[in-house]
Amino acid sequence: MSRLMQIGEVVERVGYSFRTIRYYDEMGLITPSQRSPGGFRLYTEMDVYRLLVLKRMKPLDFSLEEMRELLQVLDALDGRIPSETPREELFEKLDTFRAAADARVEKLRERLMMAEEFAQRLRDEADGRTDGGSPAPEPPVRETPAP
């Protein structure tokens, strides 16, 4: 039998807050494997794995429904839940998630590159080491309509 952990240990392992784990429980994304006689949530390594999947999806702006669907696909592929969906179709869904993740990662890379360029420009400006290029543009002037 798998070792059971209370929510505090899971919080430390995953890096989520108590509140986030409880929220995912309320949304049906992660349900504690058991409850103690006192009603405390008890989690397994598989529950921690599922939380880590969610944590990796979050920065890529996957919706709660997309998170739920991917967990169902993974559970079906691993045989944790019964599924009437053919394995080939499950793998196709998994590939769709992979392609979406790849596209979202690329967008993040583009945004990060733009942010790094901006931060470098600010550092250069602050250090007085500009490349002689033009200064920051003036903000647009709003013209008031003639009466």
Automatic annotation (TrEMBL):
Basic and acidic residues biased stretches = 119-130
What range(s) does the HTH merR-type domain occupy? Answer: 4-73
From the UniProt record, which GO molecular function terms apply? Answer: DNA binding; DNA-binding transcription factor activity
Question: Which Gene3D superfamilies does the entry link to?
Answer: 1.10.1660.10
Keywords per UniProt: DNA-binding
- Which SMART domains did the record assign? HTH_MERR
Renumbered residue ranges of the record's region Disordered? 119-147
Top-level taxon: Bacteria
The protein's name is DNA-binding transcriptional MerR regulator
